[in-house]
Amino acid sequence: MADLSNRLLEGQVNVDYTADVTRNCTIQLLDPDRTLSFESDSADEGAIYMDRMIRVVYSVKVPQMNAWVDIPVFCGPVVSMDRSDSVISLEAQGKENLAKGAAWRTFTRKKNTNKGNVIKDILADLTGENKFDFPEVANKLSADYSLGRESIPWDAAKSLASGMSRQLFYDGRGYCKMRSLPGTPVFTFKSEDGGTVLSTPQISYDSTEMKNAVLVKGGVPKGAKTAVSVFVAADKMHPLSPARLGRNGVPRYLLEVIEDDSIRSNAEAEQKAGTVLNDRLLQTVDVKFDAMPIPHLEPGDLVRIQTDEYATTFRLYQFSIPLVVGDTPMSVGYNKRLSVRGNVWRWTPKKKK
User: Which domain of life is it from (predicted)?
Assistant: First the structure.
């Protein structure tokens, strides 16, 4: 492993929660003596090519600790590079890229196998992954599970995680991480003296993505004749419920349909439908601003912005981390769900009598 820090001219890590490949890194390296080789079989310590990985660590000096804290912000394969005289420009993508090819061999697991283990096995057996950060999950396969030769391992793994209402992504360490999305803010951007907000937030509102009902269509459980199907809608007391949005006694359903063959039990379908409904029962506000780099944040984190004129909590969807110390700020562009009238409404399963 070669350290190229002293060759770095500029670069940034772009993070996008909505993309299949969550992290993208672009950097420029100074190589006036042409000592960085492009050949994949080069013995040079600093050789870089398509079969090499780039790792980026953001180091922060913490005065209170009188020490440097290293925060990994990227790890992934090089996907393109170009030389212009003494400058090498390269692009690398997160390790999801390594799991986007065809499996090209079959994969099967038996009913009642733990779903978290199935995801690990897909990525280990079909892509060679061995770095995981997973919580314990109780969800099990409700039927035998199989993947064909043309299946995309990452798509299959994300589908299983999504069926459990979990986020699956590669973090800055290069670990495949599965988690529930945070429900409380992990960081607050402030504009006051000593704060991190560097520009006036640009705010726009859009309620076109709001839904008040969700239908989940799953697969057919083994031994059953019909597929799993669960429908949930906002309670009639909710201000955005079908009843409250209706006219002259006719309810108005703003429906989202989710089709996922990996969901093969009513319990999983109900969990998925409730999670999505809680998110869709909120109006959307888009906010963009510049901030001091906060490298430890993850895509999907819940964060808060607080200025003299504006304060809200939002889900962090897109941001970029500059890699060169200077005047370049961290850019934050996100979609935040704004609850109606300041209230947070949640759908919860009704207790069975």
Answer: Bacteria
